[in-house]
Specification:
Order of helices and strands: HHHHHHH
Number of strands: 0
Strand content: under 5%
Number of helices: 7
Shape: globular
Length: 131
């Protein structure tokens, strides 16, 4: 039933369907979700990025890195938050550029993500260098 809403003409319905599918653990075929990353609505793009992040880290990270450069602030903020949640330390250089973003929420999200990612990187380094 929820899958049918992915083609709804109302962007908020599509976004809600994606979030509901993600929340309920429904792993739809990723190829049905990826095109929504190019949707005209930032709400749909953000929901698609959250969905992909929940089920396929390897597919998500490059899309999220692109999302950091999106014209809409909502998408940039969501991309930053998802990269943080995925502990994607490889996103640190790209996230650093958001510290100068004109939107304060994005600057804060970037700072929080960078703090968390630095901690993750340090923990991984300590773990790998254990005797």
């Amino acid at each position: 039933m929820l899958l049918s809403y992915l083609h709804d003409p109302r962007p908020l319905m599509v976004a809600e369907a994606l979030d509901s599918l993600r929340y309920n653990g429904h792993q739809a075929e990723i190829e049905h979700i990826v095109p929504l990353v190019s949707h005209s609505s930032p709400d749909v793009v953000s929901a698609a990025l959250r969905y992909i992040s929940a089920f396929d880290r390897n597919y998500a990270v490059p899309l999220l890195l692109q999302g950091l450069q999106h014209l809409d602030a909502l998408v940039r903020e969501n991309a930053c938050d998802e990269l943080d949640d995925l502990e994607a330390v490889e996103a640190m250089p790209a996230s650093t550029s958001l510290l100068g973003d004109p939107h304060p929420h994005i600057r804060q999200a970037a700072q929080t993500a960078l703090d968390n990612l630095r901690r993750v990187e340090k923990d991984k380094t300590l773990f790998l260098n254990r005797p």
